[in-house]
Amino acid sequence: MKALFDQVSFSFSYQVTKTYSTSFSVASRLLASSIRQDIYNIYGFVRLADEIVDSFQGYQQEDLFNDFENQLYDALNKKVSLNPVLNAFQHTYHKYKLEFETVKSFMHSMRLDLRKSVYKTQQEYQEYIYGSADVVGLMCLKVFVNGDANRYDQLKEQAVKLGSAFQKVNFLRDLKADHDLLNRSYFPGVNLDELDEKSKLKLIEEIEIDFKQAYQGIIRLPVEARLGVYTAYVYYLSLLKKLKKTPSVEIKNTRIRVPNYEKFGLLAQSYMRYRLNIL
Fold first, then answer.
1. How far apart are CA 156 and CA 139, in angstroms?
2. SS3 of 254, please?
3. Domain ranges in the chain?
């Protein structure tokens, strides 16, 4: 009887993905149907947590986050939740035996967004990125390899690098919004006022190294996941190249993005390279 509610929950997670991220939604459609819904379920969960800490200004954010966290752990324990997003996530969590440590680390980083605004050391920065992005890559990897422990261990380092690269690109793209709206500064020693061409290029060099290492894992992913993940990689790499070409003064005042027509071109290019086996 619960199957109908599960379908409603899955549909809700899909709508969250489609509404909040055009790029991720398109890339997810390129995943095999056997794993696509589970990626929606993971995205729905992480997006809802992120929305609480980023978008609910004027509300009791800490109380809302506490309630959400309690509901999350209750859902994982009871294998059901009246919250459709958490009901969908717990399904994927148990289906693929996701590691509880990854969920706990993610929630820890989300809570930091309520309490911490400046990351002064490399250790603080890496801890936040691990919890906010790297572990999401690890959750998705569990799905991509269908729970295969050996394959997971072989690819986890590259999955972490891809999560880091995506998150660092987000930080650089959203530098102005994070500073002006959320009073946050993630890059140690670099804030909106201090960003110059030299510091920008240093950050981009770090991200390029992450992408290079992540690529070695992407080409070894199971066929069910390879095209979708590769397309997301191409989208973000294109955004990084735009940021590299954009003067630092413009990054400080404008949110740089890849236009939709360029995304469609990148999608077609990714598909052709995949079909020709020249990733």
1. 10
2. coil
3. 2-275
